[in-house]
Amino acid sequence: MAAGIHLPGSNETIDLQQQVARLQALLEASRQVHSTIREEAVLGAVLRIVVRELEMAGAAFPGAGLSYGDVPDPAEQTENGPTLPLYLLQDREGKRMAELVVAPPDGRELTLYESDFIEGLVLQAAVALENARNHERNMQWARVQQDLDAARNIQRSLLPQSLPEIAGYSVAFRSVTCYEVGGDYLDIVEQPDGSLLLAVADVAGKGLASAMMSTSFRAAFRAMAITGLPLDELATRMNEHHWREGEEARRRYVTAIFMRLYPDLGKIEVANAGHNPGFLIMPDGTSRQFESAGTPLGLLPGMHYTSEEAEFTPGTRLLFYTDGLTEVFRGEEEFGPERLMDEFSKCPHEQADVILDSLWTTIEDFAQGGPQSDDMTALALCRCVRGTEIPA
After folding, report:
1. DSSP track, 142-167
2. Which stretches within 245-375 are classed as H helix?
3. Are 202 and 322 in contact (CB under 8 A)?
4. What is d(CA 339, CA 326) in angstroms, rounded to the nearest whole number?
5. CA geometry: angle at 46 spanning 43 and 52, to 5°?
6. DSSP states of 166-209 as a string?
7. E strands within the chain?
8. Shortest CA distance to 50 belongs to which of 89, 78, 7, 82?
9. For residue 85, what pLDDT is reported?
10. Residue 389 confidence (pLDDT)
11. What's the predicted TM-score (pTM) here?
12. Angle subtended by helix axes 112-158 and 16-33, to nearest 10
């Protein structure tokens, strides 16, 4: 006679061979639910195991819209009728992920063995389900990251790929995004009359949405730049264009500072549309700022902007920047435009790239390793002293 085990509180007696067979069945069931990393496949495997292994009438995951076999509709059950057994699949933190409903044959109650088997299966299924969901999240994040990497490369390609060589001048720029992509914009467009049109702009906000708006802004700026519009008229038209782009564009208004450089004449013209002031340091050390001549682009319709001119004699240098350079913090202390102006005025070099290297080092030292909180873009322009050759 085979040895057996009596289950307390039950009239069931399971012999050892049956117990081993059922443990093997549970191990095989566990292997099946862990053999896939797809959520629907995990749940489907659970349903098939419950119905086939335990010979249930049916089973279902109502929340996922999955069922196997014959599962009564809860709406068809009478108020005093049998309630189908329900098992929760919970994650490691105890949060509900899914509910398993089991329909025993002929509406009978589950045996203790059947209930124990399902509980063991549910524990394994919960682990497999959580792993499947984590895998899907990781896959989605990988796809997003891949798209962001592509977007970053595209945005970098939209920056000037080469700087114009201007005899007697040195020009350089630097742009570092806070996230993978950003809303800062910088451009240099050579004009038919020999002048150069330069722009530094900052779309409100950060991240992908601002980057998309920056790309739209670039297309409009480039289209208008080739028309040879006066600088004040260009700013006015850019404002109207951005306003007409719609509500979302208006929420992501653009601050911009435009400059036209006449290299042979040693003269510049500047129009500031709600942007940070541009800094100009003259050869004798005196300074000048190009303040805003109107609201940011796209914020209000019907705005008109003005421009101002300045001499750009040998030894003069200029800095345009976005507020990411000044809104750097050390604790509660902000770097600020005054400190930036002071550091820029101390730069003795006539090489624009050296000036930007110096400013970035100063800002990084000030931040003491703190995280970058905004996009940072700057353009430096210098005119060398006569007799001194400065590479562009």
Report:
1. HHHHHHHHHHHHHHHHHS-SS----T
2. 247-251, 336-346, 352-367
3. yes
4. 8
5. 140
6. -TTEEEEEEEE-SSSS-SEEEEEEE-TTS-EEEEEEEESS-SHH
7. 4-6, 13-15, 58-61, 66-69, 86-90, 96-103, 169-176, 184-190, 196-203, 254-262, 267-273, 278-281, 287-290, 308-311, 317-321, 329-330, 333-334, 376-383
8. 89
9. 93
10. 46
11. 0.70
12. 10
Is 297 exposed, middle or buried (CB count within 10 Å of its CB: 0-12, 13-18, 19+)?
A: buried
What's the CA dihedral at 176, 339, 357, 388 to 10 degrees?
Answer: 130
Tokens of 310: 């300045």
| 61, 52 contact by CB (below 8 A) | no
Q: What per-residue confidence (pLDDT) applies to 8?
A: 53
Task: Find out whether 72 and 84 touch, Cβ atoms under 8 Å.
Answer: yes
DSSP secondary structure letter of residue 103: E
Q: In this predicted structure, what is the pLDDT of residue 33?
A: 83
Q: At what angle do helices 39-54 and 16-33 cross, to 10 degrees?
A: 160
Backbone angles phi, psi at 381, to 5 degrees: -135, 130
Question: What are the residues whose beta carbons fall under 8 Å from the beta carbon of 238, sequence distance 6 or more?
Answer: 217, 220, 221, 224, 254, 256, 273, 297
* Among the listed residues 336, 201, 223, the one whose alpha carbon sits nearest the alpha carbon of residue 275: 201
pLDDT of residue 391: 45
Q: Looking at residue 392, what is its pLDDT?
A: 44
| DSSP one-letter code for 349 | -
Do β-strands 86-90 and 96-103 pair in parallel, antiparallel, or remain unpaired? antiparallel
d(CA 30, CA 165) in angstroms, rounded, equals: 69
Which regions in the chain score pLDDT beneath 70? 1-23, 74-82, 386-392
pLDDT number for residue 146: 83
- Token pair recorded at residue 145: 């990251």
Q: Look up tokens 């994650």; give the residue.
A: 91
Say what the pLDDT of residue 193 is. Answer: 87
